[in-house]
Amino acid sequence: MKAYRVFGGVLRSALEHPELEPLSRSERPDWQLEVGGGQCPDVRASFLGEELVEDGVMVRLFRSRGILRIAFDDTGTFDVFEPGDRIVWYPPDSGANLDSVRKDVLGRVMAVALHLAGYATLHGSAVEIDGGAVAFVAPKFHGKSTTAAALVDQGARLLSDDIVAITSDVVPQVVPAVPSVQLWPDVTDYVSTSGQVTDGKSSKRQVTWEGRASDPAPLMAVYVIAPAVGDETPEVGRAPLRSAPAAAALLGQGKIAGMLGTAGGAECLGRLCAIVNRVPVYRLIVPRDLDRLPELAERLFAWHSPAPSVAAPAP
Q1: Which of 15, 89, 177, 219 has the fewest CB atoms within 10 Å of its CB?
Q2: Phi and psi at residue 304, in whole multiples of 5°?
Q3: Rounded Cα distance, 260 and 263, in Å
Q4: What is the widest separation between alpha-carbon atoms in the chain?
């Protein structure tokens, strides 16, 4: 097995992950991914919920004694054992595309493991600005990765893309995750001037930067992206959300919140309520115009970079 740095810890995996940072020395793993031999064992399990992964592909979550089982139509079944530190993958009989398996592992499967370990997981992106984490959440195609990439291209450090994993500390921390973003080809023309672009396995491209964040960062703010619609061309702006609407907005962007069932969803909501009571949540108004990404980055830096100190005049 090889070991990799991800989500602020160490993943020891029987499956290779070329997109992750490998570890050259032996460290105690926080998570271990194994490949199960033979058929996936039958267990007495209760169905919790399901989601659409992509066209025609569903994922379903089940609970058994000491296990959360997450089953994908295309890549097989993963048993995540409490408290989330051991994962066993049972490939489908027909075989599976390993790139899709890796994507599922670093997506919903790790989100389940992180949930069992007490984290809140959001579907979004996060960057570090002057030592503090700023997160962006929204539905698909709303510009989370694009916003994060625009900031990194101007000097921020990438923390995560797809999953924002937040600790339950008194001061919530965002842990660094997968060290790249997936962007549509036209977007890379605007935000990849300082990053390395490689063609992905899908229609998107992967962008990686040097100097990405390697340590957890205290969460300073969460932005719920609200792109302008129609012919509107507003200035970039933000509006604070009160606690209840903020918690509801974050729950709607939970990475696996929709699959956790009643009890798990309530647990997830409780963690998010604790976060919004400690961290401001804003509605971020952004124009749908790639040419205005520098304006968006400039405004976010102004909100989250400390004002330069002014020297006292000489006597």
Answers
A1: 15
A2: -120, 5
A3: 7
A4: 81
